[in-house]
Amino acid sequence: MRKIYIFDTTLRDGEQSPGVNLNTKEKLEIAYQLEKLGVDRIEAGFPAASPGDLAAVNAVARAVKNATVIGLSRSREQDIDAVVEALKGAQDPCLHLFLATSPIHRKHKLRMEKEQVLETAERAIRYAKQFFSKIEFSAEDAGRTELDFLCQVTDMAIKAGASVINIPDTVGYMNPSEYGHIFKTLKEQVPGIEKIQLSAHCHDDLGMATANALAAILNGADQIEGTINGIGERAGNTAIEEVAMALATRSDFFGATTGLNLKEIAKTSRLVSRLTGMVVPGNKAIVGANAFAHESGIHQDGMLKEKTTYEIISPETIGLIDSKLVLGKHSGRAAFREKLIDLGYELSDEAVNGAFAKFKDLADKKKNVSDEDIRAMLEEKLVDAPEVYTLEQIQVSYGNQSTPNATLSIRMADGSVQETRAEGNGSVDAIYNAIDALTSETVELEDYSIKSVTHGKDALGEVHVVLKQGDVSAQGRGVSTDILEASARAYVDALNRLVEKRKTPGRRDKMSLI
Ligand code: KIV
Ligand code: ZN
């Protein structure tokens, strides 16, 4: 079996998804989980984008022990210097340099002729060679680059000292046979190609990112770049879990494998979804809620007779456990602790006690507390932002003939509890107006989404919001059996994170790759 290296860019290209903004703690939590998943390489960010990003990449570089940590850089000395700084302390550092090569980018973005592109990239690789033994070079928009020029660029990058050459389909324009053909041509025509690894980096604008990555593998790619849940710029990147499961399920066809610990896929997907606030669609391959659900009678009948009639992957393979232990209000601490272990949580005694109290509260409101309820309850807070504001009480009045209003109290940082009443054009609007009045924060609600954690009228509701203040935005999450309370909790959570972000100097909000 050929080994295919997995380059995870959830923390860089994934973070370029609209509305996503990960702080250092969140990046670290995801990086630890990526290590458990067994990815070979972790692209932690773009250090030149801001001092905040540089610090986050450095924290990941120092923390990760079992994967190469990578920093992105334009083909400029000051960007390379920023990556040198950011990767200090990394066990296995790697620089990821890029420069656009396609005619469209050369003419309109770079205003460079082919020769200048070659010279600029070569100069950057040679400069970087003083600091890094591992350098990946990406020919941005390779998919739309003339194939003979791409061969020239690859030849130059090998001679200058790159160890991985990446062929990005930056705008998701390729189809599998075209994209595969690029790899085949490079393999056949570029001298010394056997000395380096070829990498595929695809975007999903036409829904072909996974198919294109697999076509690259069939034509000689050694490495696949992608993100968990396929998040990323615009329509996203290749979903790593899809490539890994395609190779695992169809090893007869691909004859290739990844080093991933497949049982960590579900957990990694949930973590990334929670911390980025990007909900995984129910019908998403591998990690969607319906990926293993069988609805039609014919399918259910087949499944009961023999699972393989309609199931090509067992849910256990990706770490979805079929837990038989159903908890309710009569369940005791021991059963609850057992369930936490089953779900993969390692909590201190104190944390178990706190979680148990919350569970009892929930079990009073809900007959059966499912695994998903427990996860939602435990993972409500994104990553423990210090609580400047704490929601204390909430009372909402709604009638279709009257103006909705909310009375709400919040505990402030100084310990005082303040209360106010506000009206709005709906119940959520009234709640948010009351919170704004109490906190004197001026924010814009950029995004609001709500979903039910499980089925049924007593299901937990989970609300996700994105708040913007000037050029800083922050997300928040709230979970409750009542959607209005969940809405309030999410808003307060986001406010706490906004306050925290304001304190972080140089934290940029969006990466600008020019
Ligand atoms: O899509 C792309 O071209 C990129 C590069 C920076 C590798 O993300
Ligand atoms: Zn990309």
From TrEMBL:
<feature type="domain" description="Pyruvate carboxyltransferase">
    <location>
        <begin position="4"/>
        <end position="266"/>
    </location>
</feature>
<dbReference type="GO" id="GO:0009098">
    <property type="term" value="P:L-leucine biosynthetic process"/>
</dbReference>
<keyword id="KW-0432">Leucine biosynthesis</keyword>
<keyword id="KW-0464">Manganese</keyword>
<keyword id="KW-0028">Amino-acid biosynthesis</keyword>
<keyword id="KW-0012">Acyltransferase</keyword>
<keyword id="KW-0100">Branched-chain amino acid biosynthesis</keyword>
<comment type="similarity">
    <text>Belongs to the alpha-IPM synthase/homocitrate synthase family. LeuA type 1 subfamily.</text>
</comment>
<dbReference type="GO" id="GO:0003985">
    <property type="term" value="F:acetyl-CoA C-acetyltransferase activity"/>
</dbReference>
<dbReference type="InterPro" id="IPR005671">
    <property type="entry name" value="LeuA_bact_synth"/>
</dbReference>
<feature type="binding site">
    <location>
        <position position="237"/>
    </location>
    <ligand>
        <name>Mn(2+)</name>
    </ligand>
</feature>
<comment type="function">
    <text>Catalyzes the condensation of the acetyl group of acetyl-CoA with 3-methyl-2-oxobutanoate (2-ketoisovalerate) to form 3-carboxy-3-hydroxy-4-methylpentanoate (2-isopropylmalate).</text>
</comment>
<dbReference type="Pfam" id="PF22617">
    <property type="entry name" value="HCS_D2"/>
</dbReference>
<feature type="binding site">
    <location>
        <position position="13"/>
    </location>
    <ligand>
        <name>Mn(2+)</name>
    </ligand>
</feature>
<dbReference type="InterPro" id="IPR013785">
    <property type="entry name" value="Aldolase_TIM"/>
</dbReference>
<protein>
    <recommendedName>
        <fullName>2-isopropylmalate synthase</fullName>
        <ecNumber>2.3.3.13</ecNumber>
    </recommendedName>
</protein>
<comment type="pathway">
    <text>Amino-acid biosynthesis; L-leucine biosynthesis; L-leucine from 3-methyl-2-oxobutanoate: step 1/4.</text>
</comment>
<comment type="subunit">
    <text>Homodimer.</text>
</comment>
<feature type="binding site">
    <location>
        <position position="201"/>
    </location>
    <ligand>
        <name>Mn(2+)</name>
    </ligand>
</feature>
<dbReference type="InterPro" id="IPR036230">
    <property type="entry name" value="LeuA_allosteric_dom_sf"/>
</dbReference>
<dbReference type="GO" id="GO:0030145">
    <property type="term" value="F:manganese ion binding"/>
</dbReference>
<dbReference type="Pfam" id="PF00682">
    <property type="entry name" value="HMGL-like"/>
</dbReference>
<dbReference type="InterPro" id="IPR013709">
    <property type="entry name" value="2-isopropylmalate_synth_dimer"/>
</dbReference>
<dbReference type="InterPro" id="IPR054691">
    <property type="entry name" value="LeuA/HCS_post-cat"/>
</dbReference>
<dbReference type="GO" id="GO:0003852">
    <property type="term" value="F:2-isopropylmalate synthase activity"/>
</dbReference>
<keyword id="KW-0479">Metal-binding</keyword>
<dbReference type="InterPro" id="IPR050073">
    <property type="entry name" value="2-IPM_HCS-like"/>
</dbReference>
<dbReference type="Pfam" id="PF08502">
    <property type="entry name" value="LeuA_dimer"/>
</dbReference>
<dbReference type="GO" id="GO:0005737">
    <property type="term" value="C:cytoplasm"/>
</dbReference>
<keyword id="KW-0808">Transferase</keyword>
<dbReference type="InterPro" id="IPR002034">
    <property type="entry name" value="AIPM/Hcit_synth_CS"/>
</dbReference>
<dbReference type="InterPro" id="IPR000891">
    <property type="entry name" value="PYR_CT"/>
</dbReference>
<feature type="region of interest" description="Regulatory domain">
    <location>
        <begin position="390"/>
        <end position="514"/>
    </location>
</feature>
<keyword id="KW-0963">Cytoplasm</keyword>
<feature type="binding site">
    <location>
        <position position="203"/>
    </location>
    <ligand>
        <name>Mn(2+)</name>
    </ligand>
</feature>
